[in-house]
Amino acid sequence: MSGHGTPIPMTSRRASPLKGEAHVPGDKSISHRSLILGAMAVGETKISGLLEGEDVLDTAKAMQAFGAEVINHGGGEWSVFGVGVGGFAEPENVIDCGNSGTGVRLIMGAMATSPIIATFTGDASLNKRPMARVTDPLALFGAQSVGREGGRLPMTIVGAAEPVPVRYEVPVPSAQVKSAVLLAGLNAPGKTVVIEREATRDHSERMLAGFGAEITVEDTEEGRVITLTGQPELKPQVIAVPRDPSSAAFPVCAALITPGSDVLVPGIGLNPTRAGLFYTLQDMGADLTFENPRTEGGEPVADLRAKYSPDMKGIAVPPERAASMIDEYPVLSVVASFATGTTMMAGVKELRVKESDRIDAMAKGLRANGVTVEEGEDWWSVEGCGPEGVKGGGTAESFLDHRIAMSFMVMGMGAQNPVSVDDGSPIATSFPIFERLMGDLGAHITRSNG
Length: 450
Hints:
The chain is α/β, with parallel strands linked by helices. The protein has helices at about 30-40, 55-65, 100-110, 130-140, 175-185, 205-210, 245-255, 275-285, 330-335, 360-370, 400-415, 435-440; strands at about 10-15, 20, 40-50, 70-75, 75-85, 95, 115-120, 145-150, 150-160, 165-170, 190-195, 215-220, 225-230, 240, 260-270, 285-295, 300-305, 315, 340-345, 370-375, 380-385, 395, 420, 445. The two termini are about 10 Å apart.
């Protein structure tokens, strides 16, 4: 599949119960950061379990363009020979980040405090997404940016020749913005401070510390205060990437709504800033358990076992949980369709500026398949149809969004009638083995063009 090419219409229909083990790919967030920080270290960083989806591969190519040596040994094993903090070379060509908001925003931050110029672009979806949320704080370091109207790609960043440290309060909960500022702060003298009113995923902080950066995190009345001392020499690391909880969400949720299912999803990262979906599903009454809890590479990990759960109830999802499950609301709304009662999701306006307007995209697709949805600017609610009550039979538009496409493929596994999407090709950006993995569990997904 290609997220950049010909549309691939796909259809999912109810088949046998889902059974077996689902070995999902490596964590996308950690994969991006491993490549970028490896490129900013001095020496060889060895990475195993790297997600080899298009988003991460685009970041690998970008690190090569900035002068790092990146080697794919096969089987998820990679080496990055870094150029050191402040050692990026000026790229010869435009940096194409494909569909990846994480990739482009983090790379912009990493290069913004070096005296080089780089131009960034992406696919049709990425080029619609707002970049000012990153370029505004990068301007405080001394970087300049010129892009399309509304601060959109394609965009050229002129790195700061004499960067200054920054104190920045993140205006919206965004791990991408926070991480971009921290990466920029690596090559600024003195201490760069980032303040979060609401905690977001903390992979950057954990990994910066692992690479030897001087970084502290304090919970204060202001919020979560992260202080980074600039211009360190980062030390290369050996990184084992845990499996992605955002990818695990799909086989887990499919098992919960498909009669007779029992699926084990091994080795899933359960960082507290990422695991909100699984606790929400348990709150709804899902038969979901954590087995063999352990720590790997500084991250909490467990095996997830999900079984068919016909007694799930709609709930009001705590708004403070939003940052820890922002990418999982689309598939949660599918599960909510099979619950009894109404599920309310509030404090989620960030969904409107993801790969698509995910509230609008899911609302349209759910309605096309017989589900009642209400929505506002930063909330939406799904009226459950009960465990056997989702009619299906509709076609949803994916809006070039991998999570929208996969969510409706999950819906088709429990609905009365098949569910289709107009284009499943973006799935390759984050979960290239999705069709095969779900098929091995017993799902029935087909492509209209063969």
